[in-house]
Amino acid sequence: MVKYTPGVDVVFSALADPTRLRIVERLARGELTVGEIASGFSMSQPAISKHVKILEVSGLLSRRVAGRVHHCRLVPNRMREATTWLSTQERFWNEALDNLDDFLTRTSTRKKKR
User: What CATH number matches the domain at 8-113, 1.10.8.60, 3.60.21.10, 1.10.150.120, 1.10.10.10?
Assistant: First the structure.
């Protein structure tokens, strides 16, 4: 039985957007300010701030404010939860497909013997 992990859907939803995915990839190299993040995109800083907010709400990043500067960094725990969920799915489906392969092999072998 596949187990549902609450909150993982929010992580996948946040990562489904290409801009947010690129932001996460950039933050994987280290902490950046929102201005530094925005400099890598051809969109306004307010638009990037909206993407950052979605990543923050999903739990994928944290924000530290120093004066008017917002520093962002990844929060690895949420990504680990998603990775754990994916690993569970992979094990489930590999086992199910192996069982199907075994069944089809046995069924095919029986038909050939007749």
Answer: 1.10.10.10
Q: Are 75 and 55 in contact (CB under 8 A)?
A: no
Q: What is the pLDDT of residues 51-97, one digit of tens each?
A: 999 999 999 999 999 999 999 999 988 888 888 888 887 888 888 88
pTM for this one?
0.73
Type of residue found at 90: E
Q: How many angstroms separate the CA atoms of 73 and 47, rounded?
A: 18
8 A C-beta contact, residue 86 and residue 15: no
8 A C-beta contact, residue 75 and residue 60: yes
Exposed / middle / buried, residue 109 (Cβ in 10 Å: 0-12, 13-18, 19+): exposed
